[in-house]
Write a structure and sequence with these properties.
35% helix; globular; binds S-adenosylmethionine
Length: 232
């Protein structure tokens, strides 16, 4: 089977990629800035993400499904010594993230404007210290459960590419996904849930900002939870 067909089959994607046409300024950033900070990927060829940043950074952190990019930009601005990888498939979200990068003049963010699983497949073992998965699409119907990003295959990949002592942060406002996360992550041999009291999962970590999705969830009366797992 040709490589392109194999990729399509392995990374079937069910979410939304295209929104309304981009405004002129955002289209400009899409055309000019994005190609300069897009992570170059060759399927099947390992990538050491440290090589994407010069001068060399202390560590690499990854955000999967960054939405509008407000959290990614906030972390990148507060940690100039860290290299950030951000993955998002929705063009409106990518464009919004590019505006944050441009406005805040961030030079420590690289973007994978594609399915995160393609990046996870090539990142070198133990190359990433921290991973954020904030409000992943819940796919709350039982028949769609296999689409959830938290699943044994993706957890194996994350375990392989994360460094021991690193942190996996998962936030969700969906009770089904919250339970699903706690049913899958702490039982994985590589991850340990670090919470000691309810404040540890009911309060957003102090170094994070509210994302667009979290704001909507709170406005609708849902209760976000923030799970932090240690990579053993
Ligand atoms: C519910 S939204 C949350 C966005 C953002 N994290 C926030 O909190 O506002 C989930 C996001 O994940 C993105 N997404 C879903 N699956 C993805 C994948 N396989 N690779 C990259 N992004 C993905 C979607 O496009 C969407 O923007």
């Amino acid at each position: 089977m040709p490589e392109a067909d194999k990729q399509r089959q392995a990374f079937q994607f069910y979410g939304r990629r295209k929104g309304r046409p981009l405004r002129k300024g955002r289209q400009f950033l899409f055309d000019e800035l994005l190609p300069r900070i897009t992570i170059p990927l060759t399927p099947g060829v390992a990538l050491d993400p440290a090589t994407l940043f010069a001068p060399k950074k202390h560590a690499v952190w990854l955000e999967i499904g960054f939405g509008g990019g407000e959290h990614l930009a906030h972390q990148a601005a507060n940690h100039p010594d860290i290299g950030f990888l951000g993955c998002e498939v929705f063009d409106g979200g990518i464009a919004s993230c590019l505006s944050h990068i441009d406005e805040r003049k961030l030079d420590n963010v690289r973007i994978h404007p594609e399915d995160a699983r393609k990046l996870l497949a090539v990142l070198e073992p133990r190359s990433v210290e921290r991973v954020f998965l904030l409000f992943p699409d819940p796919w709350h119907k039982r028949r769609h459960a296999q689409r959830r990003f938290v699943n044994p295959g993706n957890l194996d990949r994350l375990a392989a590419l994360m460094r021991a002592g690193g942190e996996l942060r998962i936030a969700s406002d969906d009770p089904i996904y919250q339970e699903w996360t706690l049913r899958h992550v702490p039982v994985h041999p590589a991850f340990q849930w670090t919470a000691l009291s309810p404040a540890d999962w009911l309060e957003r970590p102090a170094d994070a900002v509210e994302t667009r999705y979290e704001k909507k969830a709170r406005a609708a009366g849902r209760v976000p939870m923030f799970f932090r797992f240690l990579r053993r």
